[in-house]
Amino acid sequence: MSTTRSKLGLQGERLAETFLNKRGLKTLARRFSTTVGEIDLIMREAETIVFVEVKTLRNRAFKDPQDQVTRSKQHKLLKAAKWFLNRKRWTDKPCRFDVVAIVLPETGEPEIEHFPDAFVPERW
User: Fold this and answer.
1) Rounded Cα distance, 43 and 66, in Å
2) Pairing of strands 95-103, 48-57
3) Residues spanned by the domain of 113
4) What is the pLDDT of residue 46?
5) In-domain check, residue 123
6) Is residue 86 one of the residues assigned to a domain?
7) Domain CATH for 8
8) What's the rounded mean pLDDT across residues 62-73?
9) Looking at the 3D structure of the chain, how many domains does it have?
10) Is the pLDDT of residue 1 over 60?
11) Using CA atoms, how far apart are residues 19 and 60, in angstroms rounded to an integer?
């Protein structure tokens, strides 16, 4: 990933975490990485473990950020989430997959959209 894209991604993740914290979600992990994939944010809302994918773009000229969470990306998130739950011995806890889409223009305010339960894994 280029340095510019990496900085944009990190900035988006920080904005998403702050946004979700203000809505009552508690941060459990940031940039959780395994050999099977990475999860941007892992949070807790009441007893539910929330796996969050953050997508950040400068503008919507060609696509919306949330559209970048493809089936392939969902599959990687699922594998990493299973790894996390097994490691913590939390396989009995309810969980969900959210997407936070951020448009972060060079000037002006960021646009942040939260999509709770953005996708439900076909096989869990």
Assistant:
1) 19
2) parallel
3) 3-118
4) 96
5) no
6) yes
7) 3.40.1350.10
8) 91
9) 1
10) no
11) 20
Instruction: Report which of 96, 79, 99 is spatially closest to residue 34, judged by C-alpha positions.
Output: 79
The b/e string for 22-52 (b: 16+ C-beta within 10 A; e otherwise) is eeebeebeeebeeeebebbbbbebeeebbbb
Instruction: Please provide the size of the chain in residues.
Output: 124
92 found inside a domain: yes
Q: What is the pLDDT of residues 44-64, one digit of tens each?
A: 999 999 999 999 999 888 889
Q: Is residue 41 part of a domain?
A: yes
What is the token pair recorded at 17? 């975490």
